[in-house]
Design a protein that fits this description.
This protein is α+β, with helices and mostly antiparallel strands. The protein folds into three domains: 80 residues; 51 residues; 161 residues, Histidine kinase-like ATPase, C-terminal domain (Heat Shock Protein 90), CATH 3.30.565. It is built from nine helices and eight strands.
Length: 328
């Protein structure tokens, strides 16, 4: 959260820009009034053009200043969030370790403490991995070739990981409508996309959580993946902002859900690398929550098999004529 000193520091550039723009407009009006009654169209035109260019430059500078202020605010929220996310598991681990050292506990209690400590270590590991992922987004998957990735097991794996993380049963919380489909891409990129999207859907679901994941053909060579939940949803004003780096709606001091504001940025960046699209919309039936719509190049397995079956078989005579024409 920005301090009063930070707010005053941000206010000065905006006030200065607005004052210079007002001064520029005043001078331009005076210039027009001064020369409009004189026979000096050249001076009038040059002056108006010069003042207009200055006004455009000041407006552009003001827009850049506001963007920089918003980015600084998101970064401040990000630092608060990461600090909290790092300190909480470390404090919990320290408390449990001190308890194990100072007290004599039975085996059942020790096993419970060990399970909680393992959970906190996994939480730290997830946070560190997410921070590292952002730093190497440009190089993700470059060490492996793109190949046909089966979508159904990939989504099921992401569902199991997210449900284990947020302590809910995938059989009751998640409804899957995922026919066999194939996406030609680097597997690591797809894993990061679906892990972040499905984890986000489970995290912000209602109580009890209800998540639906559907896969549909969008057009020839494209798949549409719809991931929805029954949570509070995302306000319309924030639906493009959520894909920006560090962005999280609200204030870190009053937020109940943990996070860093990096997951959806990772999704958006990797989807763009795959020439796809990702967006947010409401449920068509008006139910609470929202739906993330992901469009990626791919095909249903059924469609691929149909296309292959419709291709004419290559006969021996056709192969011989092809080789003869090539030798000729």
């Amino acid at each position: 959260m920005a301090t009063p000193w930070q707010r005053s520091r941000f206010r000065w550039p905006i006030t200065l820009s607005a004052s210079l723009m007002a001064l520029n407009v005043t001078l331009m009006v005076c210039w027009i009034v001064l020369f409009v009654g004189r026979d000096a169209p050249g001076a009038l035109t040059i002056g108006v053009i010069a003042f207009a260019l200055i006004l455009i430059g000041l407006s552009f500078w003001l827009v850049l200043t506001i963007k920089e202020i918003r980015l600084n605010h998101r970064q401040a929220n990000f630092v608060d969030s990461v600090t909290h996310e790092l300190k909480s598991p470390i404090a919990a681990l320290q408390l449990y370790l001190e308890t194990l050292q100072m007290r004599s506990l039975d085996d059942a209690k020790r096993a419970e403490f060990h399970a909680v400590m393992e959970q906190e270590l996994h939480r730290l590991d997830r946070l560190i991995n997410q921070l590292l992922e952002v730093g190497r987004l440009d190089a993700v998957g470059h060490h492996e070739e793109a190949n046909d990735v089966q979508l159904q097991p990939l989504i099921e794996q992401a569902v199991n990981t997210a449900c284990a993380h947020h302590k809910c049963e995938p059989e009751t919380a998640v409804t899957l409508d995922v026919p066999a489909a194939v996406i030609n891409a680097r597997r690591m990129m797809l894993e990061m996309i679906f892990t972040n999207l499905i984890d986000n859907a489970v995290k912000y679901a209602g109580d009890p959580p209800e998540i639906s994941i559907r896969v549909r053909p969008s057009s020839v060579g494209w798949l549409k993946i719809l991931i929805g939940n029954n949570g509070p949803g995302i306000p319309h004003a924030d639906r493009k902002k959520v894909f920006k780096i560090f962005y999280r709606g609200g204030n870190e001091l009053h937020r109940r859900r943990k996070g860093t504001g990096l997951g959806l940025y990772i999704v958006h960046t990797l989807v763009k690398k795959l020439k796809g699209r990702v967006s947010v919309r409401d449920h068509h039936d008006g139910s609470p929550g929202c739906v993330f719509v992901l469009e990626l190049p791919g095909e249903l397995v059924e469609t691929l098999e149909t296309l292959r079956s419709n291709q004419p078989p290559r006969t021996k005579s056709s192969e011989m004529s092809t080789s003869a024409s090539a030798s000729g």
